[in-house]
């Protein structure tokens, strides 16, 4: 059973995009459980007694969309610090994936991370996916873009997440991408995928689990090449690797991950 946690606020459009992402997972595997969670924040606790799941239109819309897709839904309302409540719920449920909603700037196609989303990202010890708004969710086989750096552990974490997606062996294919920084000028050295041990390890991990892999190496500005490649292959989502602080279990997003997350028109997962 693949367990997802979908924390929603009161924005129905965001909540529906989160639900659509999870419903897309069920195209490949019916055994998915979704918990739709609404947290009443501390500055609104005066109305906590009057809030039920049914009074939060965004939560109801997300739950109904998932149930229409045949997904079992657990409907929950909690109160207190929002990020902490989300992380506690994910830990209690042992969720495979947290699916958060991003925000859009007015007039530009960039997702703005709210403080709650950021706090969950840097504190969660499990994959977190941002869906944003205005995203289009396709049908059929999922094509996942896996951009890796030279960190073998990070790359393997990314590959493990992809291999663990519902119905991965039958319904997922992957492009493992390595970008040679700024090497897109005339006379640049050849871009050889096999030179990068982390990229090879990620590709082999996926192939050993019967997931078709395209091995791609290009040169250029890293975030831009990741976004361009996602568009070129019509990726369903992008799976990035996070970084850990020394000594504490918090993920720090590198500048590349953050740039991709803020600019992508596709769901982006940070695996940690």
Automatic annotation (TrEMBL):
<comment type="similarity">
    <text>Belongs to the universal stress protein A family.</text>
</comment>
<dbReference type="InterPro" id="IPR006015">
    <property type="entry name" value="Universal_stress_UspA"/>
</dbReference>
<feature type="domain" description="UspA">
    <location>
        <begin position="142"/>
        <end position="270"/>
    </location>
</feature>
<dbReference type="InterPro" id="IPR014729">
    <property type="entry name" value="Rossmann-like_a/b/a_fold"/>
</dbReference>
<protein>
    <submittedName>
        <fullName>Universal stress protein</fullName>
    </submittedName>
</protein>
<feature type="domain" description="UspA">
    <location>
        <begin position="1"/>
        <end position="130"/>
    </location>
</feature>
<dbReference type="Pfam" id="PF00582">
    <property type="entry name" value="Usp"/>
</dbReference>
<dbReference type="InterPro" id="IPR006016">
    <property type="entry name" value="UspA"/>
</dbReference>
